[in-house]
């Protein structure tokens, strides 16, 4: 579960880091992303700050819905940590929040890569690296840190494997079948 908490706090920090320049200095963002240096229009300032506030809201919701921050004092008295089990009363939305934020990071990384490839602006490559790292950790949490994971924690094998068209030697070993 430590990776899950690291992922949620990392996601909140990354979104906050992205939101800060959008809110504090829309002129800086326009200067970094525009081929010519100019003052931002009022519409660009509005959209920049609106997106910044939305990113902060997403960061706060990620922390609250994942169970990283308890929502009531009754739940904070319990000693057991929050899990990604859908039946966990401390964080019933932990797994959906994990999936949504991992998808967000994946889409953001893909978009930043496409823009970096097209324009060559270094800021896009930095955004791509940060979002790619969080997307990879989010995917790892979906596969290994959730109860719905498809990968066995003991053997590392995919639980959905079958014997067709190739033999599944691990399953045969466990079931005591003769190998051919």
From TrEMBL:
Keyword Transmembrane: yes
Segments crossing the lipid bilayer: 12-34, 46-65, 123-145
Region span, Disordered: 153-180
Keyword flag Membrane: yes
Annotated keywords: Membrane, Transmembrane, Transmembrane helix
Composition bias type Basic and acidic residues, residue spans: 155-173
PANTHER family with a match to the protein in the record: MAJOR FACILITATOR SUPERFAMILY (MFS) PROFILE DOMAIN-CONTAINING PROTEIN (PTHR39605:SF1)
Entry protein name: Uncharacterized protein
Protein source organism: Phyllosticta capitalensis
């Amino acid at each position: 579960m430590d990776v899950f908490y690291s992922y949620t706090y990392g996601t909140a920090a990354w979104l906050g880091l992205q939101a800060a320049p959008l809110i504090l200095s829309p002129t800086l963002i326009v200067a970094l992303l525009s081929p010519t240096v100019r003052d931002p229009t009022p519409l660009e300032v509005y959209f920049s700050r609106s997106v910044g506030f939305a990113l902060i809201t997403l960061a706060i919701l990620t922390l609250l819905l994942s169970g990283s921050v308890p929502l009531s004092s009754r739940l904070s008295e319990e000693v057991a940590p929050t899990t990604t089990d859908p039946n966990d009363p401390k964080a019933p939305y932990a797994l959906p929040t994990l999936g949504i934020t991992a998808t967000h990071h994946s889409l953001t990384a893909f978009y930043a890569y496409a823009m970096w490839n097209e324009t060559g602006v270094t800021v896009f490559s930095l955004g791509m690296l940060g979002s790619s790292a969080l997307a990879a950790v989010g995917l790892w949490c979906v596969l290994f840190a959730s109860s719905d994971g498809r990968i066995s924690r003991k053997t590392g094998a995919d639980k959905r494997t079958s014997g067709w068209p190739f033999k599944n030697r691990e399953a045969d070993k466990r079931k005591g079948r003769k190998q051919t």
